[in-house]
Amino acid sequence: MKILIIRFSSIGDIVWCTPVIRCLKLQLPNVELHFCTKKKFHSILEHNPYIDKFYFLEDSNSLLDFTKKLKNEKYDLVIDLHNKLRTWLIRLLLFRKTISYKKLTWRRFLYTKFQIDTMSNQLHVVDRYLQTIHYLGVTNDNKGLDYFINPKDEVEIKALPIDFQNGFVSFVIGASRFTKRLPLEKMAELCQKIHKPIILIGGKEDNKVGENLISFLNKSNFKLPIFNACGLYNISQSASIVKKSIEVYGHDTGLTHIAAAFKKKIYSIWGSTSPIGFAPYQTENVILENANLSCRPCSKSGTDICPKGHFKCLTEISFEF
To answer: Does the domain formed by 161-315 have CATH 3.40.50.2000?
Structure first.
């Protein structure tokens, strides 16, 4: 049996697909698994032993030409875990048996637009992904998420500054949108409560925020070691650091969800988005959120400004742990 799984983005969502990949490969006899995503996300699954072949959609690709390549594979089944217009068109053009996961679009719209409680009894998105393959006799093995790191990307403890070689926590300061990221003062407040050496994790775009945070903490006589690793490592190297952490603090973003693959205790921070159905999966998790606002959640994936202008979801969040 030859199966194509489609999920184009983004980091956290692709990592949430990994139980589907593993369970299909281990529970179906002689299955050949192909995975279709964007080229920039290849490294997330590059060393996943359960995937036999990749196909990458580039922005320059003609959808028709791209689908012709897929059509040559003569798939027995196409599993659409993205379920957007583009993936619907691919499924239509392939003209093969397809299944797709239920996105709960209207429920999420009502929840984030009007704060109507339509989501409280919903399964985690990982379990909804897995529901799409139940009819094949494939069940959740409850082993959680996978993230496989190339040995060359493993960051050795001895390669870190000496103050971090006897244990540290990771603080994932990156976030894709403004309303998912703590303001600088609240980041500093959180750091003051951690009481362990801290490594700041994020991409190149987060490096300046990391430097500003350290400067802010130094002015308040912060005594513990803190190291800005934002932009110094690729995604798998950053995942390696997270893997070696005592525990992880992070916004609703990819590396925070990758930490769940390593069964880390995670303190996950939620602003305009909601953890219902999207919290770190099958790992010890402490939700940090301002649950006393009638305007929250206001977005399913964050926005660049607070719609109400006050940003109380994160400016008035308290850290009780």
So the answer is: yes
